[in-house]
Amino acid sequence: MKVVLLEDVKNVGRIGDLAEVKAGYGRNFLIPHGLAELASPKIVRSLEFQNQLERKRTLRDRKEAEALAQGLQGATVTIVATVGANNRIHGQITNQQIAEAIEAQLGLKVDRHKIEVDQPIRSLGIVTVPVRITQGLEASITVEIAEEAPEIQAEDEAEEEQGGEAAEEELR
Q: Regarding the domain delimited by 2-54, which CATH topology (the fold level of the hierarchy) does it fall under?
């Protein structure tokens, strides 16, 4: 007896599969429990059409993922961070910041959950970060952590000094 599985059934097949089972097993267990239905010619054609659509969708998604991996592989993005003592940055560089830098600098949209930062990035330098695009497809991207431009820090310090001088004059 041929049945189309509506659920995954151990030792028979997965959901959507066309399976050949013994008549008693299909009639007395699979069909009454809603695990399968009898395979009519109409259902078989529909199943083949759905499988064909799924294969096309999977192929298209795979091509898009490979294009993304090719665009990311070996690319370098730069993230600017404020630096404190001993060239240690304030806070840490997160996978969200890396995803935003990839989108801004490379024009590629990457889900932050696919970027794997093993250890927190807390110092200046160059780090290679893996990006797991799909199962079995991974790209490596180089992240350069650079110090925030000194003139910006100097301007901030100058504003603070002017604010401090103005406060002293008010006290006088």
A: Ribosomal Protein L9; domain 1 (3.40.5)
